[in-house]
Amino acid sequence: MVAVIKPAIQVRGMRLDDLPAVSALENLSYEFPWSSGVFGDCVKAGHSCWVLCVDGVVAGYGILSTGAGEAHLLNLCVGPEHRGRGLGRHLLGRLLDIAKWNRAERIFLEVRPSNPLAKTLYESVGFRQIGLRPRYYPARDGREDAIVMVLDMAAGHIEK
Predict the structure, then answer these.
(1) How far apart are CA 114 and CA 4, in angstroms?
(2) How many C-beta atoms surround the C-beta of residue 37 within 10 A?
(3) pTM recorded for the entire structure
(4) Helices (H), ranges, 83-156
(5) Which residues pair with 149 in a beta bridge?
(6) Which residues pair with residue 51 across a beta bridge?
(7) Cβ-contact 40, 119 below 8 angstroms
(8) What is the residue range of 85's domain?
């Protein structure tokens, strides 16, 4: 019998000393990444900033803004070498819990049409498209639209 060793997965609050690792993952993941300063501003502003660690190493992160009965998922990312293992769903579940604890009735997000895997993940937990923001994101050929999605927390159909 071969013993299978599962990696230790932890979701914890993002600290300022996590910013180099978070920024490195952002740069690996996106052609137009957030700067390290934007992440630092999110932490300093008191947004719900979380890192997902695999065996003690930052493998993903998520940032959620909450207030006035709503939440906005600002950024969710799992590093390329950790994708396809359910870690994005795990981290998203944690952020949805935080939104519930903050009494958010709705959660909004924007996602690129060129990121169908993320859109599928969001739809799988109950997000639905409610609009389009034209030319919202920078893109290689100019600008890319953003799909605006919402999750109604009161609907009670959140799947994790």
Answers:
(1) 36
(2) 10
(3) 0.91
(4) 87-101, 116-124
(5) 109, 129
(6) 12, 61
(7) no
(8) 9-155
In a domain, 17, yes or no: yes
- Ordered mean pLDDT values, 10 residues apiece, the chain (160 residues): 81 95 96 94 95 97 96 97 94 96 97 96 97 94 96 68
- H/E stretch holding 26 reads helix 19-29
**Does a structural domain hold residue 88?**
yes
- Residue 39, domain member (yes or no): yes
| Edge-to-edge strand list for the sheet holding 142-152 | 9-13, 48-54, 57-67, 70-78, 106-111, 142-152, 128-139
**CATH number, domain containing residue 65:** 3.40.630.30
10 contact partners, CB below 8 Å, separation of at least 6: 52, 53, 56
Which residues does the annotation mark as catalytic? 110, 122
Q: Is residue 83 part of a domain?
A: yes
